[in-house]
Amino acid sequence: MTAETIKINSLVPPTWNRLKVNDVTVDMPGELTSGTFSKELDTAEADAADWNIETGCGEGLSVFLEKNGTKPVLVKNDGDKLISIRKTCEGNTADVLCFEAHDGETVNILTDISSDDSVQGACVLRILIKAGRDAKVNLAQVIRPGKELAVINDIGTSADEKAQINIIQVFTDGSDIYSGCRTDLKGREASAENRVGLVRTDGQTLDMNYVMKHLAPKTKAEIAVSGALSRNASKTFRGTIDFVRGCAESDGAESENMLLLDDTVVNKTVPLILCTEENVAGSHGATIGRPAEDMLFYMMSRGISREKAVRILERAALEAAANHIEDEEARDYVLGIIAERYSYD
Amino acid sequence: MSKELLNIKDLCVRIEEKEILKGLDLSIGEGETHVIMGPNGAGKSTLGNTLMGKEEYQVTSGEITFMGENLLDLATDERAKKGLFMTFQNPIEVPGVRLSEFTRSACEAVGNKMSLWNFKKAAQEQMKFLGMDPSYLDRELNLGFSGGEKKKAEIFQLLMLKPRLAILDETDSGLDVDAVRIVSEGVRAYQEQVGGSLLIITHSTKILESLKVDRVHVLVDGKVVAEGDESLVAEINENGFEKYMKA
Fold it and tell me: Which of A260, B38, B82, B165 is most exposed, with the fewest beta carbons within 10 Å of its own?
């Protein structure tokens, strides 16, 4: 397989081209092999036809993975014990992991993707989740790549009646990250939450496409993004709440709270509410692009250096998301990583 | 007069194209309490922000020395490390950062290091003294605090950091009578416990009632137009700034 450029994170429907937010192109290297995880997972073959779930990154990545021959793998549950997946990337890898919470089950998942600064290439992780009736899936993710590795993190989920899917993601500084996440709320009273804490600095990019699709009545969804940008970093967040006809009395909200730590950063936000059902409540907003200069001055007036003040604010942005991780073991693990990486003592 | 701590000579400051301070002179000795009074727009807060080194305040001429050192060469955090402190008129909210960890980081930054145990003990004592619920220590800095609690949190930091010179920028504004009394007691505790100097910027006189004041300066249109002892406060309280504005 030869290297190629793929188009992912497409906005549906597209907006003006000149805004350059309709999608993003990513240069993919040649063949991507299956990655290795720190602990052997209890897996089984997954039938691709059973896992035809739409994802945030979308068709462009699906076609690439198919050409690459990447097969979906079902990761088995062990009761409500945390499924901990740690992947230290050492080159070009691609994995598709599937998780299923059957009716009434709770599944807790933690993924940690990291790499050394010297590792180049691309790391693709696609996660597909099915949550049955009254089931609950808590997914906590931390992505902390080195300086040269591009990470594509793609999620697709499907929630049946009264199912809950909570996804908390922490993206530390490091190389470029492309993140997609789509949740189909298929069953009545299904609910979903996506919380993202992010830090980008030194010219790094984060490109996000998050979609909450309300397909049944009384469904509820929230997307909340918080983070800090500095030193020529850029971030694009596409957040779509899609109320499909028949999803009456559904409620969808998205918010963003970004700290812009200097005037070299680019912060693009595309909040989108699509609606073909009348009786719904959708909202987006909050403090997008809050200038942090007053905050930095306040902290410096107490003797804290500018660098340390930035570090404190970056850590706070990540912790704001991580504190929402429900599973205690996963939460402590992610908070530990944040504390270590953003230590300011 | 006590040993000179802060000296400001012929200070001119502008924000963008507008000149705010127009040749201000001021000298504060160690342990002294000075009050800057003046009508709205006189340049009082500009003086405080300039002393702390806020970027948009451009010093176009004049000099400021602190303990004999040129303050204008120093960044804001370096000024704080030298012993300068300012309570903010509108304290900034910092989401995700707890008051306790922020204050501990600040104490360490200014060289007032304590073990975690000693810090907690000292912090709880000061909280109690200021009539604040100790649970505020675990709350995000100034987030959801009432106006009075924000001002008390500023005085809490003042008592914990123990600076050489504290600039109080309209600390009493927007406070009810009880809150002014508590804040005033906190400031008096700073005078007594730390023996530091104070530059109190205010256009009211409530906060001064229980404090020993050494010198009062009246600031109008970017210049000190009158100076005097404590009695000047009472005079302004009675007659306002009108006669100084006409001068």
Answer: B82
